Hints:
4-stranded antiparallel beta sheet, mainly beta, Jelly Rolls
Amino acid sequence: MSCRPERDMNVFGVLGHMHKYGRRIEVMRGGLDSTDMLLNQNWTFLDQPIVPVTARLSRTDTVSLRCTHRNTTGATILYGESSDTEMCATVLYYYPFDRLAGCIQQAPPSSDGGAADGGDAAAPGPRPTVRANCVRPGDRGTAGGVGEYCTRGGTECDNNTIARTCLADLAPEQGQNLCTRILCRRDSECGAGARCIGDSRGAVCFPETCLEYPDGGSSDASTSDASADAASSLDASGD
């Protein structure tokens, strides 16, 4: 995956992160074919150091991340937060600090049109769009905290059971001050009253109150159990 920092950064440390099936991680300035490495190391799950670096990134630079995994289980390995699932992530430590930010990219939908993790297919019909500035101060969101109003750098999401990330911290350009769960794969991961919305760049949980449907209708998030365009898996065939 590749993205731009959209700010000038003096990078002094790089942390890579995968789980038990990771084998190698690379972070580079430029595209995936670049040799200008910020991090280039074999992966050991029990040893995840912050690697000291000295690098100057401009707001127009591209930073790319590549992970190599080897699946030794004979089964499909899914994206997830437990060590028995997999992910590919990096954290850059930099100064002068202004805000927490990042970018997310997920795999495209599986070729059969179903959820890549073997779950249900996406609900039929048009996908909803998200209304701009759809929460207001004092909004509490769902029972899991999806849609609770939050502020950049605040702690409003910390005690939620599902939505523990403030979207204003991760993607302030979206203008959405709400608590969410990032990298969801299906609506059920967002809890009742919320849906997993996104595309191949990534997906997050939004409350139903923020969604608009082309026909003016609504959807029962408790019975719709997939966002097939937001699932990611690692096949059992190899890297």
